[in-house]
Design goal:
With 127 residues, this protein is mainly α. The chain has 4 helices and no strands. Helix 2 packs antiparallel against helix 3 and helix 3 packs antiparallel against helix 4.
């Protein structure tokens, strides 16, 4: 399991490094959220609150049935947040190509998350 997780992180790191070099985007701080402006920060907070409520509702609804509701609700919230981030970066960021990196990074993160979920919980068909 450690090799699988380490391998997935290594793949994600190398692809991000390649994308940053090709697109010409600076490295982002992984632990700190970067907002384009105050409006972006406020809307991201609202999306996060709505996402927590939505994922919680999906978990309650799917309790005892399947874990897919929670997983797919999380993916949908992440998609909405990523699309909004890309929109704000395209419109207001200093580097106009920064939104491309955001949009190209998202499928990799989702693939990593679903692969890890399939590895940890093989009884739940995620794909």
């Amino acid at each position: 399991m450690i090799l699988f997780i380490g391998g997935m992180f290594a793949i994600l790191f190398l692809v991000n490094l390649f994308l940053r070099k090709v697109i010409g985007v600076e490295k982002r701080n992984f632990l700190k959220a970067s907002y384009v402006n105050d409006r972006h920060k406020k809307i991201e907070i609202y999306i996060g609150i709505a996402g927590v409520i939505g994922v919680g509702a999906a978990a309650i609804y799917g309790y005892g049935k399947t874990g897919l509701y929670t997983i797919y609700a999380t993916v949908i919230v992440a998609l909405i947040s990523t699309l909004y981030r890309a929109y704000m970066e395209r419109k207001y960021a200093e580097n106009p190509k920064e939104y491309l990196f955001t949009l190209l990074e998202f499928p990799l993160v989702i693939l990593f998350t679903l692969s890890l979920g399939s590895f940890l919980f093989p009884e739940i068909p995620l794909f």
